[in-house]
């Protein structure tokens, strides 16, 4: 309890520093500012800094830019062209989309980026430099996440493997292989020839994985999801997947979130895209309504987050909007439209301030109590 009060006090102090009012009730939402992004290939990832003063934005051309939360002005720019060439990537362009951005929990000046070219990049705010930490050959990265203690991070992508890294050494400590037959045969032959039993398994995904999420209350529990319509659970201390799983959600973005005993999924489906699940039983709690979703265009959600006051944020390509929904009443508190598909979403202060972006622009908005 004392720790929680201390954390709340720190958050309140940071909010005050950037001029944000900590309201107790969410009744509507309003955009604060927006930026056009057509010249940079759209927006594919967003992340607020721990200090709450900066918003990092990942673009379709491989660039990363940061913006002030208080006035919306651009503060830094990190271009893929500033990176040195990488031997294994010489035939590929490095100006491909930044699909995921996460700040290191133990080093708040370090921003990690997962890129479609297979690189894991780092922005160091202290030195103002962009670098490549490592790369996954023949993979297209789609998501990256840290355990809450910062000791590990995980990645997923096109090859459907789940990789868990030691964040201090940036080395893979677990590789949960996909379930494709060629991978299983390759692993069996390797074990036969080497006589070793590697820290890998073949109970992973069948198809491209799009989301990985460490549970915020369980540092060793990792959730992953993608095209194969299943949410898988991993205890990263173990060699195989956990027996529990959730069948159904078709995930095509960073469309899983967890908070306490609730799991939220955002599926790229015409209907029933937003669903809440019970972490204890893996059972469905409820399917949320997306009001005013056009029956022709559908819902088709890419990303969603759980916020305070039983509120959910969700974005997608069907409505081309950011939705603010009360999960208890199924009431839409706000709908903030853009003109093209919306891929990226992040929030801070329990959802009191949030950002969303897609192919045409990104916007920063805040909740209102009136």
From TrEMBL:
The reply on keyword Transmembrane is: no
List the Pfam families.
Answer: ANAPC4_WD40, WD40
Which lineage is the organism of this entry classified under, starting from the top rank? Eukaryota, Metazoa, Spiralia, Gnathifera, Rotifera
Q: What is this protein called?
A: Anaphase-promoting complex subunit 4-like WD40 domain-containing protein
The protein's superkingdom reads: Eukaryota
Q: Which InterPro entries match?
A: Apc4-like_WD40_dom (IPR024977), WD40/YVTN_repeat-like_dom_sf (IPR015943), WD40_repeat_CS (IPR019775), WD40_repeat_dom_sf (IPR036322), WD40_rpt (IPR001680)
Organism whose genome encodes this protein: Adineta ricciae
UniProt keywords (A-Z) are:
Repeat, WD repeat
Q: Which residues form the Anaphase-promoting complex subunit 4-like WD40 domain?
A: 136-181
- Repeats (WD): which ranges? 202-244
